[in-house]
Amino acid sequence: MLKTSFKKFYSIYFNAPKGTGKLVPLIVIESAAICITYFISVYLMKSLGFDSFQVGKLISALSVGTCIGSLFSGYLTIKINPTKVAALGFLIYSIGFALLSMIVSYYHLLFTLFLCGFGGVFIAVANLTALIKLAEDDIMKNKILVIQSVVFNFSLSIFSFLLCYLKTEQIRALFLICALFLACTSAFVFRIKEINSINKKVLKVERDKINIPLVVLIISVVFLYGVIYSLVKVYFPFEVNVRFSNNPWILWLILSANPICVVLLQPVLINKLKYKTNTFLLLAGGTLVGFGYLFFGLTTYFIPSLLFICFATLGELIFSPISKKIAATSMGEGKEGLGFAAWKMTYYISGILGATLVGYLGVNYKNINIWIACAPLSLTIILCIVGFEFFKKTNINMVLRN
């Protein structure tokens, strides 16, 4: 029984398409770099003394860079090998980290974070496009997105913990090391030949139609999801640090709850939920994310905080890969890169607005618990999905009558 369970668990992560092994190291490096910039809010508040409104504007600069980079990277993945696009992204990101190691002014920091966002999305879109083109069916696409999610969340845990405890000069040294490493990675990736199966399918860009209602749904719900996570990016690292910094082990456990849940729960989600409809999964994921972080913000105790983070993580595990898969396939075969780029651009446009808004509210309305905003955002996701299902059923009934 135990042996069979282990084999099933093992197959989730290692029974992947040929060529995945060459891409996973790139995803590890990409995830580490992106996670450092995700949790830069701790460094900005603790080491540089910025308030939440300033941090919100800086995180928005990161999001602006990502939005603009999404347009370029999505187009480039159609024209050239995705690994070459990733190499360009690593080079741009290395320049961003080099500039972060020698910050001289607030506006210099704005430009630097813009550059990090621009380069980071090149890497993310290129790697996901290369991975998804290796898959032959939906189950394998789920597995591939799971691998990416697991790697990213482990990186998130490690680097959020580091940025909470490293001193200012140590963090700047980390930025410089990252810059050198990413520059070397860029040179290495550029020399990689085309990975088998990436271009095995004939592109049918002209023949495949875009599923417009599905695209509208994904843009709507991902926008709302992004606003929730812009709040998390600005407040979560600092909030956890304030609550539990006196106990490093509790702090580590809170920050590690996300990747631990990813590893333990993902096999169950892949095997048990693959028969559910995609829109049902989006609804469940959006509900858990919003209300998980809402209740996390309403408590200050360790056990409830840990429990609600686990709920929010479960929602993320459901919502993120399913929405990415829908975005990739809704654009038509051969245009997966455009689908991922649209997902990223929507997510970060919402991040621009969300980070600035929550930062402003945090400075000017300190008596308001900012985490309460997660509830109406989650409810709006539910309404969007219900509205889409109603529209789809109405169209089907009209076709049947005719």
- Give the biggest sheet: none
Our Rg estimate from Cα atoms comes to: 21 Å
What are the secondary-structure elements, in order, as H or E?
A: HHHHHHHHHHHHHH
CATH superfamily placement: MFS general substrate transporter like domains
Distance between the termini: 54 Å
Q: What proportion strand?
A: under 5%
Determine the fraction of residues in helical runs and give it as a percent range: over 70%
Number of E-state strands? 0
CATH architecture: Up-down Bundle
What is the CATH fold-level name? Growth Hormone, Chain: A
Instruction: Point out poorly predicted stretches.
Output: 196-207
InterPro entries: MFS, MFS_trans_sf, MFS_Transporters
Transmembrane segments: 23-46, 58-78, 85-104, 110-132, 144-165, 171-190, 210-229, 249-270, 277-295, 340-362, 368-391
GO molecular function: transmembrane transporter activity
Protein name: Multidrug resistance protein, MFS family
Which helices and strands appear, and what pairs or packs with what?
Layout: H1 2-14, H2 20-38, H3 40-46, H4 52-79, H5 82-100, H6 106-132, H7 138-165, H8 168-190, H9 212-244, H10 248-272, H11 278-298, H12 302-330, H13 336-364, H14 374-401
Helix pairs in contact: 2-6, 2-7, 3-9, 4-6, 4-9, 4-13, 5-6, 5-8, 6-13, 7-10, 7-12, 9-10, 9-11, 9-12, 9-13, 9-14, 10-12, 11-12, 11-14, 12-13
InterPro entries: MFS (IPR011701), MFS_trans_sf (IPR036259), MFS_Transporters (IPR050171)
GO molecular function: transmembrane transporter activity
Keywords: Cell membrane, Membrane, Transmembrane, Transmembrane helix, Transport
